[in-house]
């Protein structure tokens, strides 16, 4: 084989690799964006971050596993029960966070969410732990398509489509519906919103439910590609925090942009530098964001006024 | 004299418990006692950050990891050397973990410290010289030539915890400690008094790191095994829970919290998962109902009575001095609320 052909071949290989890395990056980005948008939504409504956010979704996932796969209920029933679990958890903890936050100490709901993390993690291990890691059968049909010379797995496409649909729906909900308008009003100025009769507490709870369901959706979409464990969402939640930090925890488009950059960076560093680097990328992004964003939502509430 | 008794009585009891427990308890019970001491020591370190400057950190397991690995790699099985290396590396890493407090606080700092503990785990897992993800086994270290076996390690842990409590008590009531709490309770006022808030937070984190570094070195000898999994996020969260459950403003809060986690888990003979559920729920209940923690809830009435009798002047001229040492936590909160 002559030299130019080798060069050409390696070039084609490189491009194909880059193509698949790009799709993998988009897949990661959609995943992070779905979770990150939920984090932003909850932060905007309650000014707190729920460190048990991922654990809510995992608990819902285990309920799905128990009902649909271990007890052989229909998949739809399993999904419903899983989603119901997430809704109940987010309502209960959302209510508690709201009243703790209104008591004045910002740190209390944060510390409490770590307690919830420990408890939910322990419950998952207690009931379902000690068995093999669980394989979740895919809910949506599986297939493979060839896009621009690279074979793309259907999981990637489903999650990308879900992210696009969810972000459009969320945008429509926030900008065009009256509930979204009330939600934004209670975020912007709680006292004024209460004065004109908006139930700000209920608005915040709606945000909690939507945000937590988004994480559950993300988990159910990607988990057929891996295993369901109590730690399934930990790395993703950290990346979602990093993505949300890009938008200062306030902006959905900022979180989506952050997720895109993070996903592509992780995929490329995993492919071309070292696979172990992939886990470190979001951590470095988080640390960089603080120094790039000295006046975002990262600044504590008291300091901003 | 009274001051010495007051400061020394608790730590002396802990040291005696360590000596007796180390040599008279059976192997496994002694081990549990040692783990209790080590968690209490790390928790006491975290108390500087969470309690006295009021900043959440879930990165302190990462500091323990650095202390443990530094001691294992550099001390050559020498206990005194390992402890000193643990202190030094913990001081440096605690300083570094405290640096972000200049820019971020509250939930932002929690996320950054979370990233830190994951970063430490990821780095150790990827460095083959440190044993990678599978970890390394340690030999029994030596104290002045004699092998430091389990009873000896329990005694060392007890003595270090006792010393740690004395030092923490002195620091808390010093000008430095008062400045920390001034920054926590009212930053603008502290600034007006000429206190540098950023400097105060970073010094508290550095000292806090030194405690965790020593605790990490002790823990590695006790387990005789080191892996990134021994110092994961779960340990960090458990440390936070230890501090908050016991009382984040207290000297003995972490001792109570760590006792509930380690000894409580052993007495009830439950699995790690059940223990996690119970401890997590306990943390939830404490932040919900008793945000000041268990120690103030338990000894609060006694303290109030003591303070009242001191106000009546029944305890003589030393009363104002004694009050300052005995009630440092309730004094600022009472004034604050």
Describe the structure.
The complex is a heterodimer of chains A (305) and B (337). With 305 residues, chain A is mainly alpha-helical. Chain A has a domain at 32-139 and 149-228. Chain A is 75% helix and 3% strand. Chain A contains twelve helices and two strands. Chain A has a two-stranded antiparallel sheet. Chain B contains 15 helices and four strands. In chain B, α2 runs parallel beside α6 (150-173). The two termini of chain B are 34 Å apart. Chain B has helices at 2-24, 27-52, 60-74, 79-98, 107-125, 150-173, 175-185, 187-192, 197-223, 233-246, 253-267, 272-289, 294-311, 319-326, 330-336; strands at residues 136-137, 142-143, 146-147, 225-226. In chain B, the strands form two sheets. Chain B has a two-stranded antiparallel ribbon. Chain B has a single domain, classed as Orthogonal Bundle (ABC transporter involved in vitamin B12 uptake, BtuC). Chain B has 337 residues and is an all-alpha fold. Classes of the chains: A mainly alpha (305), B mainly alpha (337). At the A-B interface, α4, α9, α11 and α12 of A face α5, α10 and α12 of B.
Descriptive terms for the model:
heterodimer; A: 305 residues; mainly alpha; two-stranded antiparallel sheet; 12 helices; 75% helix; B: 337 residues; ABC transporter involved in vitamin B12 uptake, BtuC; two-stranded antiparallel ribbon; 15 helices
Give the number of DSSP strands of chain A: 2
Nearest-angstrom radius of gyration of chain A?
21 Å
Structural class of chain B: mainly alpha
Inertia-based shape of chain A? globular
Uncertain ranges of chain B: 315-337
Strand proportion of chain A: under 5%
């Amino acid at each position: 084989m002559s030299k130019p052909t080798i060069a050409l071949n390696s070039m084609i290989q490189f491009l194909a690799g880059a193509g698949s890395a790009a799709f993998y990056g988009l897949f990661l980005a959609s995943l992070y964006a779905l979770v990150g948008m939920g984090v932003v939504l909850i932060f905007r409504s309650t000014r707190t971050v729920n460190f048990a956010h991922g654990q809510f979704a995992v608990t819902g996932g285990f309920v799905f596993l128990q009902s649909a796969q271990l007890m052989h209920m229909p998949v739809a029933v399993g999904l419903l029960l899983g989603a119901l679990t997430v809704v109940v958890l987010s309502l209960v903890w959302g209510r508690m966070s709201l009243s703790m936050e209104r008591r004045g100490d910002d740190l209390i709901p944060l510390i409490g969410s770590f307690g919830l993390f420990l408890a939910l993690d322990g419950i998952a291990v207690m009931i379902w732990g000690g068995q093999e890691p669980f394989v979740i059968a895919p809910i949506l049909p599986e297939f493979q398509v060839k896009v621009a010379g690279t074979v793309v797995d259907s999981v990637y496409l489903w999650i990308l489509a879900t992210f696009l649909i969810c972000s459009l729906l969320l945008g429509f909900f926030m900008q065009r519906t009256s509930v979204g308008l009330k939600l934004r009003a209670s975020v912007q100025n709680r006292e004024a919103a209460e004065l004109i009769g908006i139930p700000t507490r209920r608005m915040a709870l709606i945000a909690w439910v939507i945000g937590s369901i988004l994480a559950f959706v993300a988990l159910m979409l990607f988990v057929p590609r891996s295993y369901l464990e109590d730690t399934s969402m930990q790395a993703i939640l950290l990346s979602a925090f990093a993505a949300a930090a890009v938008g200062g925890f306030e902006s959905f488009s900022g979180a989506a942009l952050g997720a895109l950059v993070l996903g592509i960076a992780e995929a490329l560093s995993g492919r071309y530098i070292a696979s172990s680097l992939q886990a470190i990328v979001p951590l470095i992004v988080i640390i960089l964001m603080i120094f790039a964003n000295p006046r975002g939502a990262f600044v504590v509430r008291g300091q901003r006024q | 004299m009274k001051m010495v008794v007051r400061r020394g009585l608790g730590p002396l009891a802990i040291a005696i418990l360590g000596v007796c427990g180390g040599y008279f308890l059976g192997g496994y019970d002694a081990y549990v006692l040692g783990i209790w001491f080590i968690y209490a020591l790390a928790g006491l370190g975290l108390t500087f950050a969470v309690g006295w400057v009021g900043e959440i950190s879930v990165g302190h397991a990462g500091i323990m990891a650095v202390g443990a690995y530094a001691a294992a790699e550099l001390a050559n099985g020498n206990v005194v050397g390992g402890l000193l290396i643990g202190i030094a590396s913990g001081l440096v890493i605690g300083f570094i973990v405290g640096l972000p407090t200049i820019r971020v606080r509250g939930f932002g700092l929690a996320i950054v410290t979370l990233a830190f503990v994951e970063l430490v785990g990821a780095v150790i897992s990827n460095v083959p010289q440190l044993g990678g993800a599978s970890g390394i086994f340690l030999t029994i270290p030596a104290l002045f030539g004699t092998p430091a076996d389990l009873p000896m390690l329990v005694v060392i842990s007890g003595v270090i915890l006792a010393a740690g409590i004395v030092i923490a008590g002195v620091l808390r009531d010093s000008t430095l400690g008062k400045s920390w709490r001034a920054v926590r309770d009212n930053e603008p006022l502290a600034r007006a008094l000429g206190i540098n808030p950023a400097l105060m937070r970073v010094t508290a984190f550095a000292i806090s790191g030194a405690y965790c570094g020593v605790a990490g070195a002790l823990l590695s000898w006790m387990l005789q095994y080191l892996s990134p999994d021994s110092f994961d996020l779960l340990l960090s969260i458990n440390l936070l829970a230890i501090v908050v459950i016991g009382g984040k403003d207290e000297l003995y809060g972490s001792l109570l919290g760590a006792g509930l986690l380690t000894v409580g888990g052993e007495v009830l003979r439950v699995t790690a998962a059940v223990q996690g559920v119970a401890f997590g729920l306990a943390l939830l209940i404490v932040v919900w109902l008793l945000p000041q923690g268990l120690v103030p809830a338990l000894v609060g009435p006694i303290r109030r009575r003591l303070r009242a009798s001191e106000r009546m002047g029944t305890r003589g001229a030393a009363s104002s001095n004694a009050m300052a040492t005995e009630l440092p936590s309730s004094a600022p909160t009472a004034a604050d609320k």
